[in-house]
Amino acid sequence: MSSFIRDKRASEEFTALPSILIVTIALAIFFSLVSGAYFSYKEMVRKVDGYADVNYLLEKLTNENSPIFSNGCIDAKKIKNANYEELKDIMKRDFLLKVEVRDKIFEIGENKGKNAISASKCMPVMLNDAEVDYGWITVILWD
């Protein structure tokens, strides 16, 4: 066996294999890191777009021309009696609208489970013709 190692006539065609192996492993690690960074960037952009969408819907629902808005307040009676399909046509998406005032919760829409993105805003809510109190309006969208 030792004569084989000391033999200078042996072929040297396999001496470059360790260096090629190291370069191949380094390239594989590099491309896996680059692809991981790319996919995390895409996920971040998707979430930022989702937050922009839900914030746009929240602003659209709380402006003066909204069907649930009257006299500078969110009208709880209009949320109770609102037609979800009409609001869905205005918003062009499925959503859940939740208004929380004191211990009361008014909701319109459907809860679709996980992967939700939401935005909230504190606004005055008209509970009845004589009672106005501050509450949180929350809009929830799903992916």
Structure description:
This protein is an alpha+beta fold. It has one domain (17-142). The chain is built from 4 helices and 6 strands. The chain has helices at 2-6, 17-61, 76-81, 84-91, and strands spanning 69-70, 73-75, 96-101, 104-109, 116-126, 132-142. Strands 1-2-5-6-3-4 form a 6-stranded mixed beta sheet. The radius of gyration is 30 Å and the shape is rod-shaped.
Enumerate how many helices there are, as a single number: 4
Shape category? rod-shaped
Kindly provide the radius of gyration, computed on alpha-carbon positions and rounded to a whole number of angstroms. 30 Å
Tell me the number of strands: 6
* Share of β-strand residues: 25-35%
Indicate the mean pLDDT: 83
Largest sheet: 6 strands, mixed
Order of helices and strands: HHEEHHEEEE
Which structural class matches the secondary elements?
alpha+beta
* Percent helix: 40-55%
Which spans have pLDDT < 50 for at least 5 consecutive residues?
A: none
Question: How many structural domains can be distinguished in the coordinates?
Answer: 1
N-to-C span: 66 Å
Query: In which order are the strands of the major sheet placed?
Result: 1-2-5-6-3-4
Give the structure's gist in a few sentences:
With 143 residues, this protein is of the alpha+beta class. Helix content is 45%, strand content 27%. It starts with a helix and ends with a strand.
Topology summary:
Layout lengths: L1 H5 L10 H45 L7 E2 L2 E3 H6 L2 H8 L4 E6 L2 E6 L6 E11 L5 E11 L1
Parallel strand pairs: 2-5
Antiparallel strand pairs: 1-2, 3-4, 3-6, 5-6
